[in-house]
Amino acid sequence: MQGVHLVEHPLVQHKLTLMRDISCSTRSFRELMNEIGILLCYEVTRDLPLETKAITTPITAMKAPILAGKKLVLAPILRAGVGFLDGMLQLVPSARVAHIGLYRDPVTLGAVEYYFKAPHDLRDRLVIVVDPMLATGNSAIAAIDRLKEVGAAEIRFVCLLAAPEGISKLQGHHPDVKIWTAAIDEKLNEHGYIVPGLGDAGDRMFGTK
Ligand code: URA
Questions:
Q1: Residue nearest to atom 7 of ligand 1 (CA)
Q2: Does the pTM of the predicted model rise above 0.85?
Q3: Known catalytic membership, residue 108
């Protein structure tokens, strides 16, 4: 699928299956989310630009590759997106963080913003929006609308599971935003849940149901 990177790494697929299983405990679900966050972060940063830096090893001087440009920004959509944050920060410890609080109106399924706090200088930074579930696409679109409003120009979206409906809607609104996902599931049900999915990611991660 154009514009979608399907992360088929066996470790990601194995961990995702453990998470989908209804018998996965809250503790394991959270740990697995963290571990997959690391692996997805590795994939989404695969083509980051490098520059060379002159350094001296204990043996000799050399020019060695180092990440170029400003620190990237991780933008978790609250609350489930937070599940990816620690793992991603382990890999990119200097990243900046933008928190975007959105909840899904249970009737309209539209995204309602209740919190937004981002670094001021987004224009020259890669912004990676993270949310485990790309379902209707409404939250992802609202988060990206808001980030663009405050200056973000280069945005990527990382999720664990995507519904075909969510992918089409997000790509329709933001064709410039590439998507990284571990799986594309079959469909959305009438309540806006991904099928077969894994249920409510936030509830499973935080034990709120
Ligand atoms: N959000 C979730 O947590 N799960 C879904 O299946 C859809 C949206």
A1: 193
A2: yes
A3: yes
